Amino acid sequence: MEQGAYNFPCFDLTYLTNTKIKHYVGLMQQKYILHWQHTIQNSTKLTLFNTFKNDYTPPPPPPYLGLTSKLSKRKEQVKFRICNHKLRIETGRYDQITRVNRLCPICESKQVEEESRFLIYCNKYSIVRNKFYKKK
Ligand SMILES: [Zn+2]
Predict the structure, then answer these.
(1) Is residue 20 in some structural domain?
(2) Dihedral of the alpha carbons of 8, 10, 13, 18, in degrees to the nearest 10
């Protein structure tokens, strides 16, 4: 058998023991975690995600997914977390606008419309935001 991309030694199934299997699984997990960390830390798109999650932890899913049982709302939470949304920080990317010029089109702050501005700071969303926090 040829050596693969993971640089594992040749597998001879005759001599494959449970101990060796555990060892190889551990190596693959370590490689995956390193790849995951490198991808997350070097992505300009996953800035918000990187703010909240900078270490790899396997399931269970993050607690915020338990806030609602509605699948559609859970999808929206996940989409927001991975920056799959319509805020200018993302749509500006499609329009090839530099990051610093992806300004909030709703208010006159001349600030980049990114996730924390949308959730916390933009004054145009304050009424909706206040209603949301009163529900909690
Ligand atoms: Zn704004």
Answers:
(1) yes
(2) -30
Residue 52 CA to ligand 1 centre (angstroms): 22
Residue 103: strand pairing partners: 112
Per-residue model confidence as pLDDT tens digits over 82-132: 888 999 999 999 999 999 999 999 999 999 999 989 989 999 999 988 888
CA 39 – ligand 1 centroid, Å: 30
Number of compact structural domains in the chain:
1
CA–centroid distance, 103 to ligand 1, in Å, is: 8
In a domain, 57, yes or no: no
In-domain check, residue 60: no
- Please report, as a single letter, which amino acid is at residue 89: I
Expressed in angstroms and rounded, the spacing between residue 110 Cα and the centre of ligand 1 is 8
| pTM value surpassing 0.85 | no
pLDDT band at 62 (very low <50, low <70, confident <90, very high): confident
69 is a domain residue: no
Range of the domain at 6: 1-42
Determine phi and psi for 104, rounding to 5 degrees: -60, 125
